[in-house]
Design brief:
single chain, alpha+beta, eight-stranded antiparallel β-sheet, 7 helices, globular
Length: 257
């Protein structure tokens, strides 16, 4: 009876406005109703970023626009470069390499033994950097060596030299170029085709090109950083070049209509 009387007193006071009404209980919303609650942390990848891991490796496309004349000339002028690879834990690995530039296919050809750290890194992480510089004294030594064994001159298969495209920065031997690209280990007939091209241009270094457990790989250049002796730096990248070429083609088609 006392409990019932107390409850009646509370209702009477609430009716007169002396006590505030009790808070209303809201029915729980189903997960599909109301505003969504996002538990993602700040800085978590968006949908577009998360898809990058499943996208093809950059450089796997078949479109490879011509490299800038300065890059082409330097690749034709020398055979020696520095190749940078990277391990899965981010540690860089640097190798001194001999190469052949195949302008018709826009690839740089190199070889390496399959029991080296370099080969292991190429297979696990194909993105590489290549540093090329035309050392006058080194080039003279190379030409003398190739003349003794009947090889060809220059790192490529003919074409212009650095002197032909020199911008006046000084005597032609002025450029250091960093090329970023994607390496592809070649197999079967393609490997042997590239191996033969590479051997023609590096005949004095047959021991590094032919033999058991020597793999052939090519590098497609994705971007270039070109620096001359006056510290003048210019940049080139594949995607911008492809876009510019397509725009130029569309412009020509519009003019002919």
């Amino acid at each position: 009876m006392a409990a019932a009387g107390g409850a009646a007193l509370v209702l009477l006071l609430q009716h007169r406005g002396t006590l505030p009404p009790p808070p209303r209980r809201q029915a729980p919303r189903s997960p599909s109703k109301g505003k969504e609650v996002h538990a993602a942390h700040v800085g978590s990848p968006s949908k577009s970023n998360s898809n990058r891991d499943t996208m093809p490796v950059e450089g796997s496309e078949d479109i490879f626009p011509p490299l800038p004349p300065t890059v082409v000339a330097l690749l034709h002028s020398t055979r020696v470069c520095h190749l940078s690879t990277t391990s899965s834990d981010g540690l860089p690995h640097l190798s001194l390499m001999r190469f052949t530039y195949r302008q018709e296919e826009e690839v740089i050809i190199m070889t390496t033994r399959t029991d080296t750290k370099k080969y292991e890194l190429l297979c696990s992480s194909p993105k590489v950097a290549v540093l090329v510089h035309d050392f006058p004294s080194l080039r003279k030594e190379e030409e003398e060596e190739e003349e003794e064994v009947g090889g060809s001159k220059g790192g490529g298969e003919g074409g212009s030299t650095v002197q032909d495209v020199d911008d006046g920065a000084g005597e032609g031997h002025t450029y250091a170029i960093t090329l970023n690209g994607v390496a592809h280990v070649q197999k079967g007939e393609e490997a042997e085709r590239f191996r033969a091209l590479h051997l023609v241009n590096n005949i004095a270094y047959r021991q590094f090109i032919e033999g058991e457990k020597i793999a052939v790989f090519t590098v497609h250049v994705m971007s270039a950083r070109i620096c001359n002796v006056k510290d003048r730096v210019t940049y080139w990248d594949k995607h911008t070049a492809v876009k510019a070429a397509k725009e130029q083609e569309m412009k020509k088609e519009a003019e002919t209509v």
